[in-house]
Structure of MraY family glycosyltransferase:
Amino acid sequence: MIKILLENFNPDIRPFVWLVSAFILAFVIAYQTFPTILYVSKTKHLMDEPDGRSMHANRTPTLGGIGIFFSLVVVMTIVGAMLNTKVLLLVMGSLTILFFLGLKDDLTVLSARKKFTGQLLAATLLILFTDTRIIGFSKIFQVDVLPYWVSIVFTLFVYILIINAYNLIDGVDGLAGSIALLISAVFSVLFYNSGALSLATISVALIGALTAFLRYNFSSKHKIFMGDTGSMIVGFLIAFFAISFISQTQNNMSSLYFGSSPALILAMLFYPLMDTFRIFFIRIFIMKKSPFKADRNHVHHRFILQGFTHVQTTLTIVSINLFIILIAFSMLHLNLNTQIGLLFIYGSILFYAPFMIKKKLKKIRKNK
């Protein structure tokens, strides 16, 4: 009976049911895994010690990435025989490389060079063996198709940029997980509508794992951080989704997003990228120090300094990023260069607005 059912089962017939099942499976596995991780972390004293730049006061486990990785691998293993096995296996291989690098960094210390090398290796595997790459600039600044090796190098750069930009926003409760949840939700819809069921399954599985993680990340009694293990895995998947989406649309002239995919990706990743470029500018040109030296000048740190709580900071940033994405989708009819130019303008204004509103409210309270 089971053999006949499996032989005749086709996820393409009921993709929505399939994706809901992938979400539930990922959520349940992650949710059941985190208590064990918390217990082992506390028993073996594998905790993050608060320091001068920490936004928390208590010792907290940082191995949440283990639960995220475990749930993703189980889901991809179970669905692998029924979907695009090649892509799923290569994604799992890349995630495994990053998992062990991140785990070593969370438990001991890993040099930036080794992390960078691991990220390059993981990204190269997917680019070369699936030929999933950014083939051109979609006529941004009149540049269209790139030479093959230039395309590969640029795609590698995009992977490294997104992975590390995502890692940098993991500074307050729920922020990194919520931003990734939002981005994965958008990609799930895009992949579902385009018929890319393998990619939709991975993105939905990530949503399930992150939903379970956020339950603990926001908790006051059983808090857990995703750590470098989680941030590298999640950042890598977001980069993979972004590059896969651009690659698909650039190779399909009939796609609704053929001339707009770079702008949509920039909108989805607006906060991580904006914060990264901003922090690098401050460190290099204003503070005259290494751009990789940690401090508390991130946008989310500024929100906390302005009196926002962790939850308020996360909700505000995620809401703004969602609004930016919605505006980007409403401007698909415009020229790509115009879309990107306007994105930088309205995106910057929207992220500056909460500080102006907070300052105005303080002034009103003072005058009362």
